[in-house]
Amino acid sequence: LSTWGAVPAGPPDAILGITEAFKADKDPRKINLGVGAYRDENGKPYVLNVVKKAEERITAAKMDKEYLPITGLASFTQNAAKLAYGADSEPLKQNAIAVAQSISGTGALRIGGAFMARHYPHIKAIYLPTPTWGNHIPLFKDSGLEVRRYRYFDSKTVGLDFAGMKEDLKNAPEGAIVLLHACAHNPTGVDLTQQQWKELSDLVAEKQLFPFFDMAYQGFASGSTDRDAFAVRHFVSQGHRIALCQSFAKNMGLYGERVGAFSLTTQNEEEGKRVDSQIKIIIRPMFSNPPLHGAHIANTILSDPELYQEWEGEVKGMAGRIINMRERLYDLLTHELKTPGEWGHIKSQIGMFSFTGLQTEQCKALAEKAHIYMTMDGRISMAGLNGSNIEYFAQSVNAAVR
Ligand code: PLP
Predict the structure, then answer these.
(1) Are 102 and 73 in contact (CB under 8 A)?
(2) CA-wise closest residue to 214 among 238, 250, 239
(3) How far is ligand 1, taken at its centre, from the CA of residue 104, in Å?
(4) Looking at ligand 1, which residue's alpha carbon is closest to its atom 1?
(5) Cβ(115)–Cβ(278) below 8 Å
(6) Parallel, antiparallel, or unpaired for β 31-32 and 372-373?
(7) 106 C-alpha to ligand 1 centroid (Å)
(8) What are the backbone angles phi and psi of residue 137, rounded to the nearest 5°?
(9) Do the Cβ atoms of 318 and 135 come closer than 8 Å?
């Protein structure tokens, strides 16, 4: 008998399966709305101009390939923290943030999950929104935390179930960990308003919950890295100690380079140093130290005022193209095609994804009849739409819902 004879075949990844089906489809009108990566107006992957410039500088500097320290490139992690918390953030000014470079956002979540499982002194249960990014669930379970859920999305209004969210968090045990998507909630595209964030911050304080932020899309939601950091900065300004996971996959288009950061705000510099020493102890047997190249790219952009300004423009450009697609799609469905149903959520949702409200049967029909691929929960990546395919997409949706 083979050693692995009893290993059962696992289910294929839902999102990668869509890409397979898309690739196999020979119809020229086909559209892939499953992928979570930005596409330009021609439907092509986009390498930011500032990334090309940063790479030229790195090549010219003939840098060596030595190992980074366990928590990564120090200038990069400082710049990443500044980007997220804001230059005038109190814990940043007091050197009270322990920050480590991570294998993009996923790796940051995993370091954070492991740290909470080992050192968090209260109940080791994390509350995740329903729905959430699918990977959150196995990721926190594998980290050793108990996964629980709170209501987030209301399918009737295709919007936020704020009352349900508050009720579930009020009923959570004191000290529980709560995962919050800082901006551009994946998969729904539905975010809290600034007023709702303030209310939530009070509730989190009352219940002494621990806010654990996943910020995978800073800048990508509104086009402004400051505006998208509102929730994180508000919580910190209210005196919350937080965990924060950052990714540079989307806002710098560094997907495959795996650039991210994990941080914890602490009481003071001395506590920060102790926490930092324990983050190192978690990382060392996990991956020893993080990769070099992507961190140099991000750091070159974040530390040079000229490149930084150009980067802000490019982030705005990507977010703006997505916002234009939302407006165009809404107009096509509502005004031009008079498609049955209410489509306002297409415009009010934010970030790369939109929960269209399309039902599984309609998604299947779109794949089979119109060669349009998306996840079966009706989520589309707005970045997959462009001037050449949006009319065909709207007509196909119109036909599918009639
Ligand atoms: N968190 C959320 C909510 C995401 O949507 C993603 C990517 O899709 C990630 C984290 C992590 O992505 P990465 O590991 O590529 O930075």
Answers:
(1) no
(2) 250
(3) 8
(4) 216
(5) yes
(6) parallel
(7) 6
(8) -65, -60
(9) no
Position 58, amino acid = I
Residues forming the active site: 133, 214, 250
242 and 197 in contact (C-beta within 8 Å)? no
Q: Are 183 and 382 in contact (CB under 8 A)?
A: no
CA distance 386 to 4: 46
| Lookup result for tokens 């209310």 | 199
Atom of ligand 1 nearest to the CA of 185: 3
Predicted TM-score (pTM) of this structure: 0.96
- pLDDT per position as a tens digit, 97-133: 999 999 999 999 999 999 999 999 999 999 999 999 9
- Cis? peptide before 131, omega within 30° of 0: yes
Q: Taking 90 as the threshold, does the pLDDT of residue 16 lie above it?
A: no
Are 252 and 298 in contact by the 8 Å Cβ rule? The answer is yes
Among 285, 372, 354, 329, residue whose Cα is nearest residue 32: 372
- 3 state SS of 179: strand
Tokens of 19: 């890409």
Q: CA 316, CA 122: separation in Å to the nearest integer?
A: 40
- DSSP string over 234-272: HHHHTT---EEEEE-TTTS--GGG-EEEEEEE-SSHHHH
How far is Cα 303 from Cα 78, in angstroms, rounded to an integer?
10
- 107: CA distance to ligand 1 center in Å? 9
CA 106 to ligand 1: nearest atom? 14
**What phi, psi does 190 have (nearest 5°)?**
-100, 120
* Residue in the structure block whose two tokens are 């409200």: 357
Angle separating helix axes 49-60 and 305-331, nearest 10 degrees = 160
Residues 6+ apart with CB under 8 A from 326: 346, 347, 349, 354, 382
d(Cα 283, Cα 298) in Å, to the nearest integer?
A: 21
CA dist list (Å): 106 to 111, 137, 143, 245, 261: 9, 12, 12, 8, 10
| Token reading at 12 | 């294929």
The binding-site residues of ligand 1, defined as CB within 6 angstroms of any ligand atom, are 36, 104-106, 133, 181, 186, 214, 216, 247, 249, 255, 260
pLDDT digits (tens, 9 = 90+) for 249-272: 999 999 999 999 999 999 999 999
3-state DSSP helix/strand/coil percent for the chain, to nearest 5?
Answer: 50, 15, 40
